[in-house]
């Protein structure tokens, strides 16, 4: 396992971020003699340079934190040395580890106190594009996140280069923002007509792609004829994004790391916590092209730049150039077909929970004063969600992959699903195969902090 692996045939980049921040240290505990040393994450106070504006924040040395990359079947071993003045944990977003490794304080583990160490160790069995982040309070709204890529043993996709792009809304440490708990100033009086897609209500002064503001964008490079793989991840607290690359189409190959039948589109939408892998064929002769992350329902633009190798930097588009592709063909869940549907037993679900999302309550309850959702190992479990509010809610299930039920019968396999506002409905099925107590929550951190959380609880 290495954050620095450089395959001969294909290079992996975390564009614009130092991917070399992983130190090798001996793991604690009593590792087997052949065990690889643990990677080390050291959450600590740091300064993030936002195009010349220093922002004091908390991070894992860089923002995003160092890329963790391993092959399916390898054991993830990460030692966390907490150098923060607060408790912390690390959650492996999208992976299905044993419950005790899931990183939810007070539910799956005692939080890691200041000055303490904790070793996360479990096999990463399923390939895909994942993230890691703190699961304590609003720490994720600071810089405590990073990409986690599990490569398949045999890569079925053909591509020349790969980039991870982490989309974020940022307020921490900026002069016009003082409270990281609030996570942004309140917005102006909302207009929010019913056709406006909105995932949140706060205002964030900066939109970052790989920790960089539009004035100092990450640069993706490729040659004419190259095919790029982009692993796009929305790690924002309060912002859904529409993503597009000017002058290029996107071929969606994975949602939340799980393969789908390839679909060519102009733009994809990512709620907070969602990931999307796309292939981009560099079929232009040159130039520099806007890689745009348009926040849904609010102004501003996050961006990176795709530069054909050799093209002058001066051809880069202005920071606010908005690609027409953002208004082009947008793929929805109902168009996505899972390559590997879950092996759901025939005959329908064993257990059904009908949930209403109202404001930031789930069926009238706010966690922790909320009923758990009891399941039994082996059950096929169905969650139906109806959203009566004005905000979209990206609902995330820990410890499991679920299948989005669509008319095709082969909806995408995911771990985070955006439930549309104003009466939108989504139904998901999962197999109860990973015993424990697992969070099911909205990935809007403000909504989560408000109690938009339930526990899926295994019982006998
Ligand atoms: Cu929400």
From TrEMBL:
<dbReference type="InterPro" id="IPR008972">
    <property type="entry name" value="Cupredoxin"/>
</dbReference>
<protein>
    <submittedName>
        <fullName>FtsP/CotA-like multicopper oxidase with cupredoxin domain</fullName>
    </submittedName>
</protein>
<dbReference type="GO" id="GO:0005507">
    <property type="term" value="F:copper ion binding"/>
</dbReference>
<keyword id="KW-0186">Copper</keyword>
<dbReference type="InterPro" id="IPR011707">
    <property type="entry name" value="Cu-oxidase-like_N"/>
</dbReference>
<keyword id="KW-0560">Oxidoreductase</keyword>
<keyword id="KW-0479">Metal-binding</keyword>
<dbReference type="InterPro" id="IPR002355">
    <property type="entry name" value="Cu_oxidase_Cu_BS"/>
</dbReference>
<dbReference type="InterPro" id="IPR045087">
    <property type="entry name" value="Cu-oxidase_fam"/>
</dbReference>
<dbReference type="InterPro" id="IPR006311">
    <property type="entry name" value="TAT_signal"/>
</dbReference>
<feature type="domain" description="Plastocyanin-like">
    <location>
        <begin position="53"/>
        <end position="154"/>
    </location>
</feature>
<dbReference type="Pfam" id="PF07732">
    <property type="entry name" value="Cu-oxidase_3"/>
</dbReference>
<dbReference type="InterPro" id="IPR011706">
    <property type="entry name" value="Cu-oxidase_C"/>
</dbReference>
<dbReference type="Pfam" id="PF07731">
    <property type="entry name" value="Cu-oxidase_2"/>
</dbReference>
<feature type="domain" description="Plastocyanin-like">
    <location>
        <begin position="162"/>
        <end position="311"/>
    </location>
</feature>
<dbReference type="GO" id="GO:0016491">
    <property type="term" value="F:oxidoreductase activity"/>
</dbReference>
<dbReference type="InterPro" id="IPR034279">
    <property type="entry name" value="CuRO_3_CopA"/>
</dbReference>
<dbReference type="InterPro" id="IPR033138">
    <property type="entry name" value="Cu_oxidase_CS"/>
</dbReference>
<dbReference type="InterPro" id="IPR001117">
    <property type="entry name" value="Cu-oxidase_2nd"/>
</dbReference>
<dbReference type="Pfam" id="PF00394">
    <property type="entry name" value="Cu-oxidase"/>
</dbReference>
<feature type="domain" description="Plastocyanin-like">
    <location>
        <begin position="363"/>
        <end position="457"/>
    </location>
</feature>
